[in-house]
């Protein structure tokens, strides 16, 4: 369908539209007009992604003189695939209706591991080995050597790509998923990774992972060339603060330091060798460093290092401090740093320090000052380039150390350094770790807000919505939370507080291992498995809890009984196995008898896998997924939040747990035609302070009668609900409000917000 | 054949219900002698020449082992039944007689110097008991078939194989149906083959059934591989499983140290715990087929934040007993189902079959396009699309077709009536009820509204009416009449007989026409046999026709006429053919 939102003609690939999608587009459009940032919460299953994509592409189509570019960031690669699939749907529709003029170029970008087509390289098991394998074949000096020495292996895909004058080439218009890029690359014999990298500049829509914008180590090379006229979208952004924090956190262990020492001696050997053979190269590097880091931009694409955008521009132009310009000097400084860190790790007690005092003590004991440390990251990479090191995966340890040093040297607040001699949970095993943990999510995202005209942060769960601007330190022009208008009550949240024996259930620390609670939880699943058709998903608070409870269920035989009804799959820490388990789970659901999936809140599955339609008719959230509250890092962060933003510890913890819970249960709904039940199985959910943190669209369906249920009552409600959902209904919404708008409805509506009016 | 005789104890019966006379049966090369235990009863001697057929009943729990011999009608009322004490004895006797019968046939045929059909018959007679059972079952299930079988096969018009050859599809489809439904693995996990302690000593006993072994192989590739590697080259099967159970037991007693120690000692036990390269490869290969929107492995490639957390080497020693791993593995195996049907029991064949099916599994691969197609289907929001947009519709399932079509007619008629006196001349092709209904509607409409306009031209109307009455009256009594009361068949006393005759005519005609062109004397005799049987039926049909009262006779003759016609045609064909043949011979 095609309709007007103010002066924009929006092309929407479906025949109907939900009113909330329309309102969502309206708000988004206003934010784009204002060239400001916005924060939009819309329930899952209301077609956020397609609304967003179709508005932004239509916006760009209707203003051809100032085209805007869309940078769409997803949490995971599989979400990237989903987004690109929706975009293709939209693109086909737009091209059909507008013809040539609607043609755009949209690509997904991922790492070499996901894009490489060279069989010798991609066989590497980890990302780092693939990256190293690629560098080994494509680094400029390797290719130079290969031109004289035929025994040196290069990558024919990159060679072809380079030969055809890649600078002028533009991919034909269309939407390219990772698979499409790979197939295209294979067909043409070109390297898809570098092709995609090259196309990022020209594409109208780029879909990639959060990290390509947020992680300073990556964003420098990938996102450097993006102009200001970009709309950046962070989808499923409820965890964005955690991503930001992780991006700037480094942990150093004993192994890291030992590895770093090995790296240093290897580099020292290389330097000695080079001095003997090609001293000129070292001198050239020295000169370059005198001129400043900004020179780096002229390097060929394959040599470009992950640079450090956290550094302000003036530093980039500044010359590298004299005492680390010479490579052997730099190495000895690094040695001193590693030695110092080793000493700090030998502690008996937990130590916590701010960056300022840490830097001061380094300066006192190792003689390395703060300004020097700021340059470590770039200095190291310059050195590695000079030494022509290609097996970068071997040098990860020293890179970690330099990351650490640069971060400590750059920031004076928002960080703390925590040294723990052993893991709190296993006090008898010494495992010292030094963690530089970032507490301030706004640090990593600041360059993004500064650089791009519009940043859209959107998710199904952003409640309370006023917290995010504070955490991320920005000022949205529009910040809004949408409710969901439902044709029928297709979601049925319940709070289960008691088991079938009427005793309270909870995952509270003192209750979680109580056999009564374990049994009650098991009976709940067993009875639900017998009553609910198709898929059931269970979320547990942690891996260890899940393993424990599943094992006890197995011992008392509940698991066997459950298996009489449905097949059971489980998430493990091994992603390959989990992926296969998920695939099998879907197939089992397709077979008709349904299956059960055990998963972990905050795990990989909870983060981005949909359990819509028959893949999930019931979600059981066992317990409240609080973070591990004794963790030093969390405590430090809570302290920082309290001091800086006046957010109470308890409030933040509850907020964080409940957004995870909401995220888990929100995975069941995909559209208004879909339906699903959600059981919050913990007595603590019945308390108002916890419950009220759930997003509005869940709360509005949580009836008072469903707040304090036992297993038998929940079973009864479930049966009733399923029977009700099986009845035919009018999709457009029968009485009162309309829940599905057609083109005529929209024309009648004019520019008003459908949420404000009654039909 | 060497002189051979069979002596068994059995009951002699004249009918199945008969309690029978106990005695001893002696089977000799040329005759069967039954000597009753009670000397007052009659001693029975049957020459084997007079045996035409021998039938037997199926094996069952509560069934007697029976052997039914069909004899020349002159002897002993045409049949005699022996009941044996058990099935094996019966089978011995059955075999004995069948050997004799085939010999007899062979010698007969060889006299005629026509070896080809002999071999046919020979092979047909060598049916396996399973096939025999299956045929029996078919006959039991299908009453009509049984009747036909009785009528033709037992009376010798058709041989057993001739009878079944036209029903091949019946045999084969059922066979494939039987194959289609395979028994999968149990959805409950064999968590542990539970050891049974014997109470007094420190011994425990494990019970492994073939099913459990099959499941162990499927779910634990390491054990499977070890089995293929070591059995029987290095150990006996029992030895292998003893080792397996020992490892299992040690683990169950949570004596991990002991397991590790045992594994160090014994390469077999060690191999149970070894992670397998092929498993990893297998999962990697499977991963390529996974829906990209589920592929979490790809995320790792994009995750620049956790670069230091290189996956710690998973402790393989415990991997085998990791519950989560087992759960997933089990569910996957159940979902996959048994790849091919192998009789359980022989462990080695089971193990072999499993590895074969794994090999076969390697070949199949979902195309990328299909995967992407799936993603797009998943991504689309259904209820935003208009319903006419290729929405999948549920196929119509009609339980009672007659009711459904009646209902549809009513609808159609209503529609015609609604169409406000359509000026189109009513097509003659419309079926009777339809036209009749619409006419009725039109008339009732006219009654209500008056004749506003002569929309239907009188001559057309008359013609339609004429056609209609004629058509109606003629079809009214058709066999498949609409309502049961109108059906002439149902009013006939000898309905069953007529139906049976119809079925037998069909059967005979089928055989008759399939024997042409007559190329061998075998066909020739068959045809002559058929002609005899057909003329018999012909006469019977005539008899039926004449027996009914005169007012029925017309309808009955309508009913019977097609059969008679068909038979006439067959007779005609036969006559001309024999004449031609005669001519050909004289020439």
Automatic annotation (TrEMBL), chain A:
Residue ranges occupied by any Helicase ATP-binding domain in the UniProt entry: 7-286
Subcellular location: Nucleus
GO cellular component entries: nucleus
Molecular functions (GO terms): 4 iron, 4 sulfur cluster binding; 5'-3' DNA helicase activity; ATP binding; damaged DNA binding; hydrolase activity, acting on acid anhydrides, in phosphorus-containing anhydrides; metal ion binding
Entry keyword DNA damage: yes
CDD domains: SF2_C_XPD
Protein name: DNA 5'-3' helicase
Automatic annotation (TrEMBL), chain B:
Domain BSD: 125-175, 200-252
Domain of life: Eukaryota
Example of a GO cellular component annotation carried by this entry: transcription factor TFIIH core complex
Gene3D superfamilies named in the record: 6.10.140.1200
InterPro entries for the chain: BSD_dom, BSD_dom_sf, Tfb1/GTF2H1
Pfam families, A to Z: BSD
GO terms under biological process: DNA-templated transcription; nucleotide-excision repair
Xref: PROSITE patterns: BSD (PS50858)
SUPFAM superfamilies in the cross-refs: BSD domain-like, PH domain-like
Name the UniProt record assigns to this protein: BSD domain-containing protein
Originating species: Coptis chinensis
């Amino acid at each position: 369908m095609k309709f007007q939102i103010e002066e924009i003609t929006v092309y929407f690939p479906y025949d109907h539209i939900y009113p909330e999608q329309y309102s969502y587009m309206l708000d988004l459009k206003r934010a784009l007009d204002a060239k400001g940032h916005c924060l939009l919460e819309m329930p899952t299953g209301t077609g956020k992604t397609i609304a967003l994509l179709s508005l932004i592409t239509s916006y760009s189509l209707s203003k051809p003189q100032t085209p805007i570019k869309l940078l769409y960031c997803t949490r995971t690669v599989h979400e990237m695939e989903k987004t690109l699939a929706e975009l293709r749907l939209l693109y086909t529709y737009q091209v059909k209706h507008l013809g040539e003029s609607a043609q755009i170029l949209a690509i997904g970008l991922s790492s070499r591991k996901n894009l490489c087509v060279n069989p010798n390289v991609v066989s590497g098991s980890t990302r780092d080995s693939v990256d190293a394998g690629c560098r080994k074949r494509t680094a400029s000096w390797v290719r130079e050597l290969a031109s004289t020495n035929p025994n040196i292996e290069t990558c024919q895909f990159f060679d072809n790509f380079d030969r055809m004058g890649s600078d002028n080439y533009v991919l034909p218009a269309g939407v390219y998923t990772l698979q499409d890029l790979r197939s295209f690359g294979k067909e043409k014999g070109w390297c898809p990774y570098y092709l995609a990298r090259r196309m990022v500049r020209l594409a109208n829509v780029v879909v990639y992972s959060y990290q390509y914008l947020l992680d300073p180590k990556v964003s420098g090379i990938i996102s450097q060339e993006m102009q200001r006229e970009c709309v950046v979208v962070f989808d499923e952004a409820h965890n964005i603060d955690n991503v930001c924090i992780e991006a700037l956190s480094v942990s150093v262990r004993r192994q890291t330091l030992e590895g770093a020492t090995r790296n240093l001696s290897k580099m020292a050997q290389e330097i000695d060798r080079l001095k003997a053979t090609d001293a000129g190269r070292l001198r050239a590097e020295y000169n370059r460093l005198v001129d400043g880091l900004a020179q780096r931009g002229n390097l060929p694409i394959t040599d470009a290092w992950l640079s450090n955008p956290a550094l302000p521009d003036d530093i980039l132009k500044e010359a590298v401090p004299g005492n680390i310009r010479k490579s052997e000097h730099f190495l000895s400084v690094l040695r001193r740093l590693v030695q110092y860190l080793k000493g700090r790790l030998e502690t008996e007690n937990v130590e916590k320090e701010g960056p300022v005092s840490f830097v001061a003590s380094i300066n006192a004991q190792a003689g390395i000052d703060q300004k020097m440390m700021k340059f470590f990251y770039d200095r190291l990479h310059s050195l590695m380039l000079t030494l022509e090191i290609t097996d970068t995966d071997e040098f990860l340890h020293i890179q970690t150390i330099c990351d650490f040093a640069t971060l400590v040297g750059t920031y004076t607040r928002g960080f703390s350094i925590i040294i723990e001699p052993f893991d709190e949970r296993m006090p008898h095993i010494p495992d010292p770790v030094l963690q530089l943990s970032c507490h301030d999510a706004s640090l990593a995202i600041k360059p993004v807000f500064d650089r791009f005209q519009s940043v859209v942060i959107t998710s199904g769960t952003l409640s309370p919505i006023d917290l995010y601007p504070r955490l991320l330190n920005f000022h949205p022009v529009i910040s809004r939370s949408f409710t969901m208008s439902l044709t029928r009550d297709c979601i049925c949240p319940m709070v289960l507080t008691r088991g079938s024996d009427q005793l309270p259930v909870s995952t509270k620390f003192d209750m979680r291992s109580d056999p009564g609670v374990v049994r009650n939880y098991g009976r709940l699943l067993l009875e639900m498995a017998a009553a609910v058709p198709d898929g059931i998903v269970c979320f547990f608070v942690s891996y260890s809890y899940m393993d424990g409870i599943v094992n006890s269920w197995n011992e008392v035989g509940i698991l066997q009984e459950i298996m009489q009804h449905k097949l059971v799959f489980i998430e493990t820490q091994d992603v390959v196995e989990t992926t296969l388990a998920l695939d099998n789970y879907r197939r089992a659901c397709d077979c008709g008898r349904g299956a059960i999936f055990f998963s972990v809140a905050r795990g990989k599955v909870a983060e981005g896998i949909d359990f819509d339609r028959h893949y999930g008719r019931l979600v059981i959230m066992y317990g409240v997924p609080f973070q591990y509250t004794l963790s030093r890092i969390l405590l430090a962060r809570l302290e920082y939040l309290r001091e800086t933003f006046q957010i109470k510890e308890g409030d933040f913890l509850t907020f964080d747990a409940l957004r995870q819970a909401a995220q888990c249960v929100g995975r069941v709904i995909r559209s208004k035609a879909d339906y699903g039940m959600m059981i919050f199985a913990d007595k603590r959910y019945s308390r108002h302070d916890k419950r009220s943190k759930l997003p509005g669209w869940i709360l509005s369906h949580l009836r008072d009668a469903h707040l304090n249920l036992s297993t038998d009552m929940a079973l009864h409600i479930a049966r009733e609900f399923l029977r009700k959902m099986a009845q035919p209904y009018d999709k457009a919404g029968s009485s009162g409000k309309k829940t599905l708008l057609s083109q005529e409805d929209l024309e009648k509506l004019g520019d008003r917000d459908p949420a404000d009016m009654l039909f | 054949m060497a002189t051979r005789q069979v002596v068994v104890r059995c009951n002699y019966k004249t009918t199945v219900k008969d309690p029978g006379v106990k005695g001893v049966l002696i089977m000799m090369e040329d005759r069967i002698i039954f000597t009753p235990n009670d000397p007052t009863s009659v001693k029975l001697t049957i020459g084997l020449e007079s045996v035409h057929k021998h039938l037997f009943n199926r094996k069952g729990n509560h069934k007697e082992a029976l052997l039914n011999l069909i004899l020349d009608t002159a002897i002993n009322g045409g049949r005699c039944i022996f009941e044996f004490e058990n099935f094996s004895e019966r089978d011995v006797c059955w075999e004995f007689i069948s050997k004799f019968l085939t010999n007899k046939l062979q010698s007969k045929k060889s006299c005629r110097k026509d070896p080809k059909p002999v071999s046919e018959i020979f092979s047909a007679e060598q049916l396996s008991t399973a096939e025999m059972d299956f045929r029996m079952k078919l006959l039991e299930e299908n009453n009509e078939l049984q009747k036909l079988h009785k009528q033709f096969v037992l009376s010798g018009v058709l041989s057993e194989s001739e009878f079944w050859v036209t029903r091949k599809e019946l045999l084969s489809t059922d066979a494939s149906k039987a194959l289609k439904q395979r028994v999968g693995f149990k959805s409950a996990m064999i968590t542990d083959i539970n050891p049974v302690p014997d109470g007094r000593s420190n011994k425990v006993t494990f019970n492994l059934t073939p099913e459990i072994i099959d499941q162990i192989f499927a779910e634990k590739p390491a054990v499977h591989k070890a089995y293929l590697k070591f059995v029987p080259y290095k150990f006996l099967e029992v030895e292998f499983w003893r080792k397996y159970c020992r490892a299992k037991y040690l683990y169950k007693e949570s004596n991990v140290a002991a397991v590790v120690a045992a594994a160090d000692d014994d390469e077999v036990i060690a191999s149970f715990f070894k992670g397998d390269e092929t498993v990893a490869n297998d999962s990697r290969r499977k991963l390529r087929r996974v829906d990209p929107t589920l592929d979490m492995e790809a995320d790792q490639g994009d995750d620049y934040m956790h670069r230091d957390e290189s996956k710690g080497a998973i402790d393989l020693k415990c991997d085998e007993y990791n519950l989560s791993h087992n759960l997933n593995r089990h569910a996957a195996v159940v979902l996959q189902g048994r790849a091919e049907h192998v009789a359980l029991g022989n462990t080695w064949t089971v193990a072999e079959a499993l590895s074969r099916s794994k090999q076969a599994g390697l070949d199949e691969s979902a195309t990328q396009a299909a995967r992407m197609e799936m993603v797009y289907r998943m991504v689309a929001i259904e209820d935003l699309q208009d319903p006419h947009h290729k929405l999948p519709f549920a196929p119509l399932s009609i339980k009672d077709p007659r009711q459904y079509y009646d209902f549809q007619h009513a609808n159609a008629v209503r529609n015609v009536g609604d169409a406000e006196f359509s000026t189109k001349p009513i097509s003659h092709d419309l079926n009777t009820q339809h036209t009749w209904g619409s006419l009725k509607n039109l008339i009732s409409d006219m009654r209500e509204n008056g004749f506003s306009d002569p929309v239907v031209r009188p001559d057309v109307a008359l013609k339609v009416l004429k056609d209609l009455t004629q058509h109606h009256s003629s079809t009214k009594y058709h066999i498949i009449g609409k309502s049961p009361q109108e059906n002439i068949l149902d009013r006939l006393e000898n309905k069953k007989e007529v139906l049976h005759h119809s079925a037998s005519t069909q059967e005979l005609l089928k055989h008759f026409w399939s024997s042409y062109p007559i190329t061998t004397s075998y066909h020739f005799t068959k045809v002559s046999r058929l002609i005899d049987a057909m003329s018999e039926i012909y006469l019977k049909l005539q008899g039926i026709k004449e027996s009914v009262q005169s007012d029925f006779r017309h309808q009955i003759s309508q009913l019977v006429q097609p059969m008679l016609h068909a038979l006439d045609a067959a007779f005609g064909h036969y006559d001309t053919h024999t004449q031609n043949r005669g001519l050909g011979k004289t020439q």
